[in-house]
Every structure is written in structure tokens, then in C-alpha cells.
Amino acid sequence: MDIPAAKGFSTLSSDCDALLERSPAILYATGPDWWRSDPYYVSYNLATLIGATRAQLQSTPALWLEHVHDAHDVEMHLLAALAAGESRIRLYYRIACAEGHVCYIQDDIAVQRDATGVVVELIGSLTDISETQGALAHLEAQVDSERGYRFIVENVSDAILLMDAEGACRFASPSTRGLLGHRPETLHDRGLLALLPPDDAPRVQRLIRDALRHGEPLRMELRMRHRLGHYVWLETCCSPYLNPASERYEWILAVARDITDRKHREHRLHELSTTDSLTGALNRGAYLSCLRSGLEAADHVFQRVSLVIFDIDHFKTINDTWGHAAGDLVLACVGEICRTALRDHDVFGRIGGEEFSLMLTGQSLNDAALLAERLRKKFESVRVEFHGEWLSFSVSFGVAERQSREGVESLLHRADMGLYAAKHNGRNRVHQAPPQPV
Fold this sequence. Notes:
By secondary structure, this protein is of the alpha+beta class. Helix content is 40%, strand content 26%. The strands form four sheets. The protein has a five-stranded antiparallel sheet with strand order 2-1-5-4-3, sandwiched between helices. α13 (315-322) crosses α14. The termini are far apart. The relative contact order is 0.07. Keywords: Nucleotidyltransferase, Transferase. GO terms for molecular function: diguanylate cyclase activity. Its EC number is 2.7.7.65. This is diguanylate cyclase.
């Protein structure tokens, strides 16, 4: 039976209300703030979970949040899912129940939006999965309980992985194959950390060991390598299991779901906010932020940093003669040449209309000048086709090497003075900036 729209809960007839209350379903309906505004509806059995009355929860909705473990993290996960436009959201969290014990809750939320996409209502259906959590932790010992195993696993849509403190897989649910492409039996006794990106594996292993040491649940986002070679983003909820015999936390139960599409959307939004779409370079704000961070990092490792500032000669004439469409083609050409010529860790930014900058870590003044000269020759030789005509252009460069703990503004100013000198001396040349006065 479909759950009615949230606004309908406040106008339920007494017969409908009585029918819902005889249902085993644990239901609620709130506004978009999830237990921070007056709920439209709270079922009696939901209030009973935390030893409250229905009236108390409806008048003081924050009472529910007081019983939710790590409520802030749960809300952050909910807000991220809402921002991503999801219409069905599943939350996992623990609550302090009236009897003094902790319940594991699965909260399935239907999101109601208006015609403009704004969230107006949240309708939740709770399931107490405490028994499921305990049963899954004992799966390896229940090899003779095939019927119980099938019932549990076939009713869980997310991938379930049971692993030890070293990350070795002790159990993988059938849904793992759809997620990672591996048959569950091929993962048994295999180190799951080997499926992580090499630079991320130590962090994840440290988090797992901390969770086991303190007996605390762990929620994290990570990437795992699919059988076909690409990486899949997973949101994982990890619960440590206490071995009654040793009284130590020796296992981690991980429930994982695919959030690759959401991460790609987030990455794309980040790109749009930091990258110049025409040239592929960082925009001014993002570039200056990277420059400041780069100089701070260089101070800790005593690393050289050189700066190159360059712009297109007579760019206004190109626009005036051929139009702005031709100017955009020239700018795009500059961006493509720079992105293909630079190292992965070089930082390339567009800091003005036709003005660009490069931050070169580990490069001396001479190294930077040689790179600038190679780029200058490349720009000088390239031709851009525009409506059957071939446009040529040149570029002038100013180069400066950072001196001891020199600040961003000073380094930028000196490189800019080098560019000014290159322009003054005839353009289409590289000019090294003078050292900073002592």
C-alpha cells in the first residue's frame, strides 16, 4: 500500500488513523528539516521505541534526535542525498531505546518535492534491523543454517562484506557481484584492501583498526576496483563485532552501496565552480588558492617554486579584426597546448581575459624559463583556422623563481614585471624577473 502524501497525515480520519496504528509499520512524516520541525504524523509504535508519547514527539520533535547516535552525521548524509536530488533515501543509524538497549534502525525515506524541485515533505518508514545485524555478524559460523542464510541475504539489497582486522574477506553477499563484478566465492580470504586505490588503502585500514579498537561504528566513502578495472565509489557503513569468547572486537561487518553517479555529479559541480570552461585552466580564484597552498607546502619541504605569467600579444586586435569567436578559438588553443605540455602536478590558471599563469613546483628559474621558451615557440608556430582563414599569434612571458618564504603577492608582482619587460622589449619573448630587493 502506498504511503499517502505527508500533508495528508494531518487530516486522516479516525478510521484511517486506527488502521495505521494496527499496522506493524513504524511511520512518521515531517517537513524538509527531518525532526527539527513539527511532524505531520508519528505512529504510536515509533514513539514507544524511545519511551515517549505520540504527543510528546509531535510537540518536541528534537526529542527523537536526542536518542539518535551520531545524529549530526546522519543528518549530513540525509542533506547530501537531498542535495543530489534523490527521491528515495535509506539511512542507517542507532537509537537509544526505552528499555535501555541500542536498536539498529533502517530508515527508508520518501522525498516529496514541489513542481520546482524544492523538498516539502519527508515520509519515513522505520525497520528495526538489530536482529539482522547480529545474525549477519555470525554468518561465517552458521554454515549449517542454509535456510536462515538465504532469508537474510536475499532480503538485503546492498552488498554485505564481513572482514577481519587485516581486511581479509570472510563473507561476501551475492549482491557483491552486481556491485564489483566479482563472484562472492572468489573474494573469500582475499585482502579487500588490495581493491582500494594504493594511496587510500592505509587510511581505510587505519580507520578499520580504530573502529575495532574502540568498538564504534564507522561510515565512510571510498573507491574499490571493479573486476573490469574501473573504480566504483561506495558508501559503507561498518559495524564492529565483539567476540564473546575473547571479549575483543575482531570483525567488521560492512554494508556498501554504489554512489558512483552521485560522486560524478559532485565532481562535475566542483569542476564547473573552479575551472574555466573555454581553456580548461583553473579560474582566478581557484588558481590563487592553489598557489597559496603550494607555497605553504613548499615551506615545509624546502622545495623550489617558480611562476610563469604570460598573455597573448595584441589580443585586442584579434578580437577587433576577426571578432570574439576568433578570440575564443585562440584562447582555447592556448589552453589545449598548455594542458598537453605540462606535468600532472603543474598548476595552470587563467587569471585574466587573455592572461595565464603556471605554478611549477621543484623547478628553478632556468627550468621555468626553458619551459616558457618551448611554449613560446609552440605558440608562434601554431595556426588557428577560422572560417577558411589561418590566424597566427604570439605570446609574451614573465618568469620568476620564489625567493626565501616570499609571499604570493610579491611573487606574482615580480613575474608580472617580467611580463611587462617582455612586452616593452618587443613582445613574443621570455623575460626573467629581477630578484626581490633585500
